[in-house]
Amino acid sequence: MPKYVAFLRAINVGGHTVKMDHLRSLFAALGFANVETFIASGNVIFDSPSKTPAALEKKIEKHLFDSFGYKVGTFIRSVNELTEVVRYQPFPPGDMAAEGSVVFIGFLPGNPGDEAQKKLTASVTNVEDFHFHGREVYWLYRRKLGATDFPGARIEKTLGMPATLRNSNTVRRIVEKYS
Fold it and tell me: In 30-179, which residue ranges form alpha helices assigned H by DSSP?
């Protein structure tokens, strides 16, 4: 049975506090097996016989909306897909390893069009850089050089689509634990 990771938007941020045991029970109620959460930021790992992640996303979003009363963006990747996401090198290794640099991975519902990509990459500075690969946007934030102007909401607005961001170290730890 395939193992999936659901990256949830709007969990334990902006006043939307959800206990992880409650979140696990909501996923179990959907019939998913081996449900686990990974840190309290909306990362849920589960097994499902479904071969259609888009259908799973809709099913989960509806169930969470019915349970919480607000929309929870859901971005599903298989563990195999996440392995490729982590292996991908969006920036030169020296840039990613530089002191103060952090790489975030933005999970998107689909591949943004060329126009959306151009809008975001037009914002590249010496502090931050963006790179697209498939349904992910990689964001290199060089904190040592300054403050960012790109909170997650601005990335979504610029792309014209929902997204949820995770530190690449979190994604790497998920892959190490579940692959």
Answer: 53-68, 79-87, 93-97, 114-121, 152-159, 168-178
Q: Is the pTM of this model over 0.90?
A: yes
CATH superfamily of the 3-81 domain: SP0830-like domains (3.30.70.1280)
- Cα 24–30–32 angle (5° rounding)? 70
For residue range 51-68, list pLDDT tens digits in order.
999 999 999 999 999 999
* Cα of 145 vs its chain's centroid, Å: 25
83-178: which CATH number, 3.30.70, 3.40.50, 1.20.950, 3.20.14?
3.30.70
